[in-house]
């Protein structure tokens, strides 16, 4: 996973106003760069300040101006839009109805039913459960992206771990973000550093905004091809973990696709348990 992905998945996507503000600032800076002929004169691997020498040329002043406008414009846009729409605020409100003791319809994947503590998140793929701390990506292993678990897949069929809405399908098709009907925001990240494959070996069967149910196919992965060059460990994290009292794995060893993988305890249930 690239160094920008923790910021993208951990901040920009969950906090949509910040994402929109960043897009506005970036668009303003990009317009200046395009309008005044800013361009790169060398292929440099570094971006940001270390990459500035590669942009030196007749329009270098406008290049610097475009970067400044992008930075300041994003800041101003975020301040104007507000960034109070945090995962904690949104999900706490969305999860309130889930605490009401109303019998829910039985899902066809019975393994995902809860025992009263809160929502369950299913495994998106069949395979062997791997503790999050053992994942070969520090951003996940340290819990930076949220609490969760991983699965070393035995096949390439990636299914929805929740019933809800597809928030995003990453352009390289190795990442799917979903929001469950219970307000749980789930990130399914297939493989380690698979962003470098540019989508090769991945086929998406859903798009942003699609309605999905537990067990519905999201992606098909050419597992042998991907495994030939990359670790295929598939990470499942709750990106708004702080909106809940707890997120705990409920499966060990081998797990079937759509079988219960994580238990999520709501704040409401935790408060009731202390009374």
TrEMBL record:
Gene Ontology CC entries for this record: cytoplasm
InterPro entries for this protein: Dup_hybrid_motif, PTS_EIIA_1_perm, PTS_EIIA_component
Key words, A-Z: Kinase, Membrane, Phosphotransferase system, Sugar transport, Transferase, Transmembrane, Transmembrane helix, Transport
Principal cellular location given in the protein's record: cytoplasm
Domain PTS EIIA type-1, first and last residues per copy: 137-240
Highest taxon listed in the record's lineage: Bacteria
GO terms for biological process, alphabetical: phosphoenolpyruvate-dependent sugar phosphotransferase system
Entry keyword annotation includes Chaperone: no
TM regions (residue ranges): 18-42, 62-83
Subcellular location: Cytoplasm
PROSITE patterns recorded: PTS_EIIA_TYPE_1, PTS_EIIA_TYPE_1_HIS
Gene3D superfamilies noted in UniProt: Glucose Permease (Domain IIA)
Gene Ontology MF annotations: kinase activity
NCBIfam families noted in UniProt: PTBA
Protein name, entry field: PTS beta-glucoside transporter subunit IIBCA
Lineage of source species: Bacteria, Bacillati, Actinomycetota, Actinomycetes, Micrococcales
């Amino acid at each position: 996973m690239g160094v920008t992905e923790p910021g993208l998945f951990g901040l920009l996507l969950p906090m949509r106003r910040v994402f929109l503000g960043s897009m506005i600032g970036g668009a303003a800076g990009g317009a200046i760069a395009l309008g005044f002929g800013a361009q790169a004169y060398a292929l440099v691997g570094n971006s940001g300040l270390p990459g500035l020498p590669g942009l030196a040329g007749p329009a270098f002043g406008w290049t610097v101006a475009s970067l400044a406008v992008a930075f300041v414009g994003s800041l101003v846009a975020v301040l104007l839009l507000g960034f109070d729409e945090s995962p904690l605020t949104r999900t706490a409100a969305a999860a309130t109805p889930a605490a009401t003791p109303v019998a829910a319809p039985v899902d066809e994947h019975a393994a995902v039913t809860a025992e009263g503590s809160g929502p369950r998140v299913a495994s998106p793929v069949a395979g062997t459960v791997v503790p999050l701390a053992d994942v070969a990506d520090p951003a996940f292993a340290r819990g930076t992206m949220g609490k969760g678990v991983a699965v070393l897949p035995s096949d390439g069929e990636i299914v929805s771990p929740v019933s809800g809405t597809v928030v995003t399908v990453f352009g390289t098709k190795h990442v799917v973000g979903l929001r469950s009907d219970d307000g749980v925001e789930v990130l399914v990240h297939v493989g380690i550093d698979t962003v470098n494959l540019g989508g090769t070996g991945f086929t998406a069967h859903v798009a942003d905004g699609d309605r999905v149910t537990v067990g519905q196919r999201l992606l098909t992965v050419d597992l042998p091809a991907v495994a030939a060059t990359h670790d295929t460990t598939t990470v499942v994290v709750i990106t708004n973990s702080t909106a809940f009292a707890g997120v705990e794995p409920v499966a060990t060893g081998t797990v079937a696709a759509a079988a219960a993988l994580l238990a999520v305890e709501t704040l409401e249930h935790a408060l009731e348990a202390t009374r």
